[in-house]
Amino acid sequence: MSIGLSVHIGLNQVDPAAYDGWSGELGACEQDAVDMAGLADAAGFDVTGPLLSPAATAETVTATLEAAAGRLAEGDILFLTYSGHGGQVPDLNHDETGDRLDETWVLYDRQLVDDELFEVFGKFAKGVRIWLLSDSCHSGTVARRLPEMLSPQELDRRFSTADPQEVGRRIRAMPQSVQAAVYRRDRDAYDRIQNTRTAKDLAKIDASVLEISGCQDNQTSADGIVNGLFTGTLLEVWRGGAFAGSYRGLHREIVKRMPPDQTPNLFQAGALNSAFARQRPFTI
Q1: Residue 118 and residue 110: Cα distance in Å, rounded?
Q2: 3-state secondary structure of 28
Q3: Is residue 94 among the annotated active site residues?
Q4: Is 215 a catalytic residue?
Q5: Distance, CA of 4 to CA of 252 (rounded, Å)
Q6: What distances in angstroms separate CA 39 from CA 43, 218, 247, one per listed residue?
Q7: pLDDT band at 144 (very low <50, low <70, confident <90, very high)
Q8: For 35-61, how does the pLDDT look when each residue is reduced to its tens digit (9 = 90+)?
Q9: Dihedral angle of Cα 15, 235, 164, 105, to the nearest 10 degrees
Q10: Which residue in 195, 204, 228, 254 sits closest to 86, CA to CA?
């Protein structure tokens, strides 16, 4: 009998001491994680967490995923969700062919570089399915580049507010000024993370990874009062389990309900498993 494990991460704030005084306040990320954990529990998954704000450190997240890799075998599934800010650091091991930037999850004490995430994915056994939901900015293909639309002028146009702090609370992207300051201060640590890892090769991951993201690479993900826009729409489509379609069908129905400037993406990586995307979501 297959095993289903789930891990849910949600950060409404980060440690200002780790981010040059920036607390990264958001409103709905913790609730996203709680709601996804509830869905997973109802579907029979063994739920870890949710890991909320101070509990969502890089060490805890990495250790939790490594523990899951040690438990899962062929035919099993990991359901992993992240709601929070997205960030970037310069790419040093040349695994990003476009913008030369590595993408990050902005965890409580530091950024988790995508190289680290994919290294952990590489520890899962052949035949394991990994379903990833990432409700953060520039998350289309586990994220590739920070969109130009994050300029102050474009944000003001999109959100109809002249208050930069209000704008910052409504999108899930670390401000570029904070990214630059944090990297200048902690460059040795982030460079060491990349220099101790080989360039990521998604084809060498034996598990099958299926991601439904909050937006395309060149878009932003909106926060909300109760849930993020993407997570809230997913819950609307799922309808407490009444949805009867596949992962692909779930993605299509979410896209239909989203605004044109935030289009969720479906992305597959790792070992080819054509049947995965045709399965019903939350199927263990």
Answers
A1: 17
A2: coil
A3: no
A4: no
A5: 24
A6: 6, 29, 15
A7: very low
A8: 999 999 999 999 998 999 999 999 999
A9: 40
A10: 228
Q: Which residues pair with 7 in a beta bridge?
A: 48, 80
Both tokens assigned to 101 = 């930037």
Residue type at 12 in one-letter notation? N
Phi, psi of 110 (to 5 degrees): -170, 170
State the amino acid at position 47 in one-letter form: V
Helix H or strand E segment including 91:
none
| Cis preceding linkage at 50, omega within 30 | yes
> What pLDDT score does 271 carry?
92
Burial-class residue 186 by CB neighbours within 10 Å (0-12, 13-18, 19+).
middle
Spot the catalytic one: 8, 29, 85, 138.
85
Collapsing DSSP to helix, strand or coil, 166 comes out as helix
Integer Cα distance of 135 and 85 in angstroms: 8
Catalytic-labelled residue, pool 137, 138, 215, 251 = 137
Number of helices followed by number of strands (H, E) in the chain: 8, 9
The CA R_g of the chain, rounded to the nearest whole Å, is: 18
Q: Which two tokens stand for residue 81?
A: 């969700």
Residue 120 in tokens: 């952990």
For tokens 């029979």, name the residue: 44
Strands of the chain (E only): list them. 4-10, 46-52, 77-83, 86-90, 101-106, 111-113, 129-135, 208-213, 266-270
Sheet holding 101-106, edge to edge: 86-90, 101-106, 111-113
Amino acid at 266: L
Q: Would the pTM of this model clear 0.90, i.e. be above it?
A: no
